[in-house]
UniProtKB/TrEMBL annotation:
Annotated source species: Nicotiana tabacum (Common tobacco)
Domain SWIM-type: 122-154
Protein name: SWIM-type domain-containing protein
Transmembrane segments: none
Matching PROSITE patterns: ZF_SWIM
A GO term for molecular function: zinc ion binding
Amino acid sequence: MSDIAKVDKKTYDYLMEEPPERWVRSCSPQRRYDMLTTNIVESMNSVPLEARELPILRMMDFIQVKLQRWFYERRNKAEGSFYDVSCWVEDELKKKINLAFTLNVFPVDSWHSRVEEAGITFLVDLNKRTCDCFQFQFDELPCIHAIAAIEMRNIKKSNFCSHWYLKESWLKTYERQIYPVGHTDSWIVPESVKSQIVKPPYFKVPPGRRQKKRHIPATKSSKNNIQVWSLQKNWS
């Protein structure tokens, strides 16, 4: 926080307006993973951009076809993987291996190891999956210190990853199939639904051409918010 204050005092004051447990993972009383964003929602929101001009049923058909293809491709990719974890996790672990080989490891017992990095000592507990750097327990993936201890014992690194990162969880995410709804003549609609009359909402069309893209004003305040978000990401 002192480093942030040196860069921008306003950012420091902005962060300190809220208690650290609301924006620092190490202070959070609950388990949180990385940043809380709406990226996946915004990505999905941009997919049917062109389909929004279609009638509601045609737009639903578009979404169904898109999801059907996504689930099929991702399920095949997961089934064809030779790793015990997802491809992303395997790549992340490979990135850490080279750094882990540069560390000094001193085993304490079957589970504990003392790992030295740049003159700093970290205690790794493979049984509890913890490290003094806290990255092991926060990300639920082995940090470079844990990987160094694991490699010395010649154990599979996937044994120390959260079950959410395993291949079986990856497969379970896309285990269901997305089927087409079929022709309207084949639909079985309950009478309670048929009897309902749904009218379109009242909407007054504003003058001028309809806006299809969101315009973010390049104001000073928005730039400051981006800077604050970047600092939060780097320092959380």
